[in-house]
Specification:
There is one protein chain. The protein is α/β, with parallel strands linked by helices. It is built from 7 helices and 7 strands, in the order αβαββαβαββαβαα. The model has no long low-confidence stretch (mean pLDDT 87).
Length: 170
């Protein structure tokens, strides 16, 4: 399934390029699993955000807590996994800011950052509001949602198998 996730990320990067979105920061666990191929880490509900930084013109970056970074590295196809620590210079906000870069993407209204607007955790949303107050936030949920609506043969096979298991359990 990692090859499938890699293909999905490539398609998403192409869609970002077609839509003129220079940068997307994905924080939703299911979207990260869909694109990066891993699931099962302690998520933002525990105050421990994992993020996926996707640009049309660069390889994606996973930002995850240090204690989960080894597991994430072994589960994803993405080689650039950047761990963060609970305090100090490697706090998640500093690691994310470095991944975005201060010379970050310039869109029509200055900086433009793609987020899944209705799915962004409050602590990550507050980071963007404080660090990039003039950034134009672009909701990439419709872009990713349109892609996720069309299922590949591999996804259909998994859904069929899940249905068979559920039917057997009933």
């Amino acid at each position: 399934m990692l090859d499938e996730a890699k293909v999905r990320t490539g398609a998403f990067r192409k869609r970002l390029q077609d839509e003129g979105v220079p940068l997307a920061v994905i924080t939703d666990e299911s979207s990260i699993a869909y694109l990066a191929g891993f699931w099962g880490y302690l998520g933002v509900e525990f105050g421990r955000p994992t993020m996926l930084v996707v640009r049309p013109d660069a390889d994606p970056v996973v930002i995850t807590p240090l204690m989960e970074s080894e597991m994430v590295s072994s589960m994803t196809w993405i080689p650039d996994v950047r761990p963060w620590e609970d305090a100090g210079p490697n706090h998640w906000s500093a690691v994310l800011a470095k991944a975005i870069g201060d010379a970050a993407p310039l869109g029509r209204a200055g900086r433009e950052i793609g987020l899944e607007a209705r799915l962004i955790p409050a602590i990550v949303g507050a980071f963007f509001a404080e660090r990039y107050p003039d950034a134009a936030i672009r909701d990439v949920s419709p872009i990713l949602g349109a892609q996720r609506m069309i299922k590949s043969p591999a996804e259909i096979a998994v859904m069929r198998q899940a249905g068979e298991i559920a039917a057997a359990m009933m």
